[in-house]
């Protein structure tokens, strides 16, 4: 019997892809098989997130639980951003942990499993040309990294300290990986990076003149690729060339993540985001005029140090003007290694909580009107997942989740669906008969 691997993944899409890389390496080179049963695993991994404080606290209770449930002799490894940030402190606090592997050291997984108490957390390590073995959790869509690290240094964000400086993955490797994935059935390619539209800023081997728009064109020329998504772009780098390619390239899905963070120019300056309220609104309005059906999602932080009622009102103003289809909102969480943790005028928790509820309630009420407008529309849906109750779910090009009554024969297909029931998180519809590819 082969060795068994149990892996839990927290955090963002980049962590999901890192976990796929870890699984691929362990399957291919160490003959591990995945298991959902913690008590049967020979190796238990947790791929952590450190962007906010809560998940970091949860880590120690989680690995404590693993330690209780694991079978004798099983190893526990801590990977990801909290591994990069805490390093050997993790082993000091939880001595039953066998190794710590940082978010930028994923390719060393096959080494650390053979060492006792290994700590590999070098954030200058360059994995941008490492050829990982292949594993994908979904046969229908493929996450592909196009860069590692982030150069932005937003003053609230720990990521530059856990994932290091930004290095782009050479375009030929990205294209090769996209082609292979699409030929294997993943007709949707999801390009990943902390700051995707800064692509091409730095490669590890030599200078090249290629930007994100050029890369999008290259990936879209692959015949088998039907849809391209990406996350996260940065509002600062949303120049006209990029927005026009987004609008005019039929393979690029019409759904854009525009992380606002704050609507106040003063707060944006303190966050070092590099744009103003006016720039953000100008880009969002340009996007809406170029692509009337576009779905815009965003990230918002409330209660950043120094955020006044007026600043918060600016955030609400942007929300009301842009009418985001989706908002991920967070209370500011002071993080180690970031400048903002030492800023004066930290906002009291009750005020931040009140602002967060206000924002979330407002958005929920806006969503009712937004989703009501979808009634009766016909969308091409790419079906990816079976749901309880005899439903199958997929996404429209502009990122609505749509479920219909149906079974596995819809999976992996593009099918026209008429929307019959709106909802805040997903829509319901009926399959129309003229089925596509
Ligand atoms: N590169 C990504 C951000 C990654 S972190 C981007 O620009 O979109 C994901 C989100 O977590 C951020 O957009 C931000 O809204 C939130 N976040 C990051 N640090 C935070 C902190 N200290 N407190 C609260 N939210 C934070
Ligand atoms: Fe973080 Fe800002 Fe980069 S949010 S990941 S430092 S773009």
TrEMBL record:
Record field: catalytic activity: N(6)-dimethylallyladenosine(37) in tRNA + (sulfur carrier)-SH + AH2 + 2 S-adenosyl-L-methionine = 2-methylsulfanyl-N(6)-dimethylallyladenosine(37) in tRNA + (sulfur carrier)-H + 5'-deoxyadenosine + L-methionine + A + S-adenosyl-L-homocysteine + 2 H(+)
Function in brief: Catalyzes the methylthiolation of N6-(dimethylallyl)adenosine (i(6)A), leading to the formation of 2-methylthio-N6-(dimethylallyl)adenosine (ms(2)i(6)A) at position 37 in tRNAs that read codons beginning with uridine.
UniProt organism field: Nitratiruptor tergarcus DSM 16512
CDD domains the UniProt entry points to: Radical_SAM
Note describing how the cofactor binds: Binds 2 [4Fe-4S] clusters. One cluster is coordinated with 3 cysteines and an exchangeable S-adenosyl-L-methionine.
GO cellular component, one term: cytosol
Chain ranges of the MTTase N-terminal domain: 3-118
InterPro entries cross-referenced by the UniProt entry: Elp3/MiaA/NifB-like_rSAM, Methylthiotransferase, Methylthiotransferase_CS, Methylthiotransferase_N, Methylthiotransferase_N_sf, MiaB_methiolase, rSAM, rSAM_horseshoe
Cofactor(s) the record lists: [4Fe-4S] cluster
Entry EC no(s): 2.8.4.3
Domain TRAM: 372-433
Protein's name according to its UniProt entry: tRNA-2-methylthio-N(6)-dimethylallyladenosine synthase
Domain spans labelled Radical SAM core: 136-371
Location, primary (coarse class): cytoplasm
Tree of life domain: Bacteria
A molecular-function term among this protein's GO annotations: tRNA-2-methylthio-N(6)-dimethylallyladenosine(37) synthase activity
Annotated [4Fe-4S] cluster 1 binding sites: 12, 49, 81
Entry-linked Pfam families: Radical_SAM, TRAM, UPF0004
Complexes and interactors: Monomer.
Record family assignment: Belongs to the methylthiotransferase family. MiaB subfamily.
Residues noted as binding [4Fe-4S] cluster 2 in the record, renumbered to the chain: 150, 154, 157
Sorted UniProt keywords: 4Fe-4S, Cytoplasm, Iron, Iron-sulfur, Metal-binding, S-adenosyl-L-methionine, Transferase, tRNA processing
Protein's cellular compartments: Cytoplasm
Keyword match tRNA processing: yes
Keyword DNA damage belongs to the record: no
């Amino acid at each position: 019997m082969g060795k068994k691997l149990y892996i839990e993944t927290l955090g963002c899409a980049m962590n999901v892809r890192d976990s796929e890389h870890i699984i691929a390496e362990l399957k291919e080179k160490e003959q591990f098989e995945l298991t959902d049963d913690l008590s049967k695993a020979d190796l238990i991994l947790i791929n952590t997130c450190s962007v906010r404080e809560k998940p970091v606290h949860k880590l120690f209770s989680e690995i404590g639980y693993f330690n209780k449930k694991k079978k004798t002799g099983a190893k526990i490894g801590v990977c990801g951003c909290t591994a990069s940030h805490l390093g050997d402190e993790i082993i000091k606090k939880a001595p039953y942990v066998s190794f710590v592997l940082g978010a930028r050291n994923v390719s060393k997984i096959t080494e650390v499993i053979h060492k006792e108490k290994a700590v590999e957390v070098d954030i200058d390590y360059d994995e941008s040309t490492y050829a990982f073995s292949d594993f994908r959790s979904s046969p229908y869509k493929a996450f592909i990294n196009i860069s590692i690290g982030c150069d932005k240094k937003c003053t609230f964000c720990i990521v530059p300290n856990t994932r290091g400086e930004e290095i782009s993955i050479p375009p030929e490797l990205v294209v090769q990986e996209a082609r292979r994935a699409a030929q294997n059935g993943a007709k949707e390619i999801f390009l990943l990076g902390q700051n995707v539209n800064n692509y091409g800023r730095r490669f590890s081997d030599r200078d090249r003149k290629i930007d994100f728009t050029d890369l999008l064109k290259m990936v879209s020329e692959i015949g088998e690729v039907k849809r391209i998504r990406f996350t996260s772009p940065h509002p600062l780098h949303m120049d006209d060339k990029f927005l026009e390619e987004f609008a005019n390239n039929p393979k690029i899905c019409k759904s854009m993540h525009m992380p606002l963070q704050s609507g106040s120019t003063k707060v944006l300056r303190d966050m070092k985001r590099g744009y103003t309220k006016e720039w953000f609104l100008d880009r969002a309005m340009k996007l809406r005029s170029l692509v009337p059906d576009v779905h815009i999602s965003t990230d918002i932080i409330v209660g950043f140090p120094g955020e006044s009622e007026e600043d918060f009102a600016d955030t609400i103003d942007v929300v009301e003007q842009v009418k985001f289809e989706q908002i991920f909102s967070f209370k500011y969480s002071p993080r180690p290694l970031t400048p903002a943790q030492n800023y004066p005028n930290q906002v009291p928790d009750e005020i931040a909580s009140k602002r967060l509820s206000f924002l979330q309630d407002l958005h929920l009420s806006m969503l009712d009107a937004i989703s009501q407008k979808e009634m009766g529309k016909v969308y091409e849906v790419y079906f990816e997942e079976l749901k309880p109750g005899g439903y199958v779910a997929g996404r429209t090009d502009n990122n609505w989740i749509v479920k219909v009554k149906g079974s596995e024969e819809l999976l992996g297909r593009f099918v026209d669906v008429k929307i019959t029931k709106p909802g805040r998180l997903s829509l319901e519809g009926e399959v129309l008969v003229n089925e596509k590819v």
